[in-house]
Fold this sequence. Notes:
Layout: H1 11-30, H2 36-42, H3 53-56, H4 66-91, H5 93-114, H6 125-141, H7 149-171, H8 177-193
Helix pairs in contact: 1-4, 4-5, 4-6, 5-6, 5-8, 6-7, 6-8, 7-8
Amino acid sequence: MTQRARVRPTPATTALMGAILFGFGIEIITGAWRNPEILAAIGAIVPGRGYWRLVTAMFLHGDGTIQGDLLHLGMNLFALFQLGRLYELMFGTRRFVFIYFVSGLIASIASYYHLPPNGSSVGASGAIFGILGAFVFSVQRSPRWRHEKWARSLVAQCIFWIAANIVIGLKIPQIDNAAHIGGLIAGLILGAVLPHRVPPPPPGATVVDVQPYDE
């Protein structure tokens, strides 16, 4: 009898994607996806207005235009689906959630102090950059993954995408590069300092791709 492979769940990534979609639903209901002033009013980062926005902005997307909202939302959901699920599978849900929110908050703070007086900022990309950065040292320091050729190749890919996205951000004024760099630095530091435990013996069930454990 053939044993069926099973895919481990990634509850945190799924929940975050659901929360981001919920935030976009609020944008549609309020009309914020077509009006940058409403987008700023419902939770975007705005200099001098409420520190609670450092969190709410992580679940809003766009620039107050339908095209900009859909593009921003789609790119971040795709990146979170790819990077978030993989990091959560490899290093555990608790570590992923901690790095995601700490990086996201640092990114929001960087954006808050970098924005012009009449500017605003939204998006999960700072937190996603944090996960991207965390991969670099998490893999290299992990007793489980540092000897895997594919995992070391993943680090090289992460470094390439970090460099490419920062260059793109420098060329496009609408991109909040301060948030990206702030989240990235936070992720790099957390990946470098958070302790790694030796993984437990693998369970008997066959698992697709990677075997997660909660560090």
